[in-house]
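ESCALATION

Customer reports they have been waiting on this structure for their group meeting. Please prioritize. Original submission:
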Amino acid sequence: MTDTLDAFHRGAFHLLQPEKGGHRAGMDAMLLASLVADEREIRVADLGAGAGAAGFAVAARLKGAQVVLVERSALMADYARRNLALAENAALSGRLSVIEADVTLRGKARLDAGLPDDHFHHVIMNPPFNDSRDRRTPDALKAEAHAMTEDLFEQWLRTAGAIMVPGGQLSLIARPQSVADIIAACGKRFGGLELTAIHPRPGEDAIRLLVTAIKGSKSRLVWRAPLFMHGEEGHAFAPPVDALNNGRDAYGRKGR
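Update from on-call: job pushed to the front of the queue and completed.
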């Protein structure tokens, strides 16, 4: 398998990734990382981390963040470990670690894997987003990274709620079609949901949804103003989105 070495956040960190197979990181991971806006000394879990893009992006922007990359695929977990060992990432690698485990583990199995109860201040996730009934890609690794199951959000958010400290923040990026499943899975675990639709351009339908929520919060759900990736014309990113994509800014919550 051929690898590529890609720079993110304008060279703040680099990632080895499979050139063609698997789930290559891009803007989704960078937007997900931007949802963590916390200057404290924090512990962050990146569930379904792949090669580690979102977790690395959090660590690169927030010097007080200790990040655990959780990935089920042995191949992608190995990429994450190789990325920790890159000379280009030496300044960050001491604050990141990798756990090769299934996000949906429960009870003692989850604890034994290294994901204790009430431990992380932030849990971030970019879950698989394709309906399993859709046409599947012939690439097995990519299929695993992109195909969701019927109760995926319930399982992933159950784990997030278990490993997060009370008052901790959940952050995720998903397709807009998943909004009902996300709200249902938050249930009584998470409140204060803040949702932001991401549109390619004004007048075009949303293609992604950013969600943050707080463990144990009783606050009501809020729809925030949409984000537009581009202007009316051209393919350049709009300045606010470019700043998020390159780690110059964070997309913090409006409230707690």
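Sent to customer with the following note: The radius of gyration is 17 Å.
Escalation resolved.
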